[in-house]
Design goal:
By secondary structure, chain A is an all-alpha fold. In chain A, 71% of the residues lie in helices and 0% in strands. The chains are: A mainly alpha (173), B mainly alpha (109). The interface between A and B is large, with 43 and 30 residues.
Chain lengths: 173, 109
């Protein structure tokens, strides 16, 4: 079998890559975790950084590196979700209440995760980027490559659905 | 967007944000190793693509007439019989038909 080798890194390119990893790996980890669950998180972080490595030479800086990396992480997670369709199954397995789990607010966190899992991928991405990553709708529109109005309306509908779900679960909001 | 409607939700999400599990200690090392590893060509990465390739190869083999898994078809047998009988009744049976001609003559007698 003839294998295609990735281009071996120039030392400066590798240094850039390592710097990007050091600066953004926590953010990548959080995004893929919120979008795809904990089961595949390590693989998805690796997949995201492999895509970053492959795209490093063609990255022209038309957007900021942060925006570019967010976009790659979101796309990697959404691609995975579309391919595997394991998200709901995996999440439900993960979110079975653990009687030994006495962590403060554990039940509420699981409710948030379950609520997110019930949203569509597009809506989930907007909520994750806005609420957990603290990005504005303008930044989200750039990352997801959608108009800002669309980002705003997705956020509105996603929050409405989350609110309804949490109220049904007995959370007083 | 009516912000008031979501104020409590925003607080709730901020307070109860799920936390991802910690990254493995050797994550960067594993990543670098993965980057160095050869990647198979894209058409070998998907079993579906391989299946299509095998099916297409078999189809081409069949179309050019090799037909490795089939017996002679009815058309071939029919044309063989028709041409042999035709030769026989027209008397054009060559050397191989001598015995048959003799048998036919004996029958007529």
């Amino acid at each position: 079998m003839k294998a295609i080798n990735l281009p071996m890194p120039e030392s400066t390119e590798l240094e850039t890559f390592e710097a990007l990893y050091a600066r953004h790996h926590r953010m990548v980890r959080a995004v893929v975790f919120h979008l795809s669950g904990a089961m595949e998180i390590d693989d998805l972080v690796q997949e995201t950084f492999v895509r970053i490595w492959k795209g490093l030479s063609s990255f022209r800086g038309s957007s900021s590196a942060k925006t570019w990396i967010y976009r790659i992480a979101v796309n990697a997670a959404l691609d995975h979700g579309r391919k595997a369709r394991r998200w709901k199954f995996g999440l439900l397995k993960e979110t079975m209440p653990d009687p030994k789990n006495h962590e403060q607010g554990a039940v509420e966190k699981e409710l948030v995760r379950k609520g997110l899992s019930l949203l569509s991928e597009e809506h989930r991405a907007v909520v994750v980027l806005h609420h957990f990553e603290g990005l504005s709708t303008s930044e989200i529109s750039e990352i997801l490559e959608i108009p800002e109005g669309t980002a705003r309306s997705r956020l509105y509908y996603a929050k409405t659905a989350l609110l309804e779900f949490l109220k049904k679960q007995g959370v007083s909001l | 967007m009516s912000d008031e409607k979501f104020t409590k939700l925003d607080d709730f999400l901020a307070k109860h944000q799920p936390v991802p599990p910690p990254a493995p200690q050797d994550e960067l090392l594993r990543l670098k190793n993965r980057l160095k590893r050869p990647t198979p060509p894209f058409w070998l990465r998907s079993p579906l693509v391989v299946s299509y390739a095998v099916a297409a190869t078999l189809l081409v083999v069949w179309m050019v007439g090799v037909r490795p898994f089939s017996s002679p078809d009815r058309g071939e047998i029919d044309s063989f019989v028709v041409s042999t009988l035709g030769d026989f009744y027209s008397g054009d049976v060559g050397d191989d038909g001598d015995e048959l001609n003799e048998l036919l003559a004996l029958t007529e007698e």
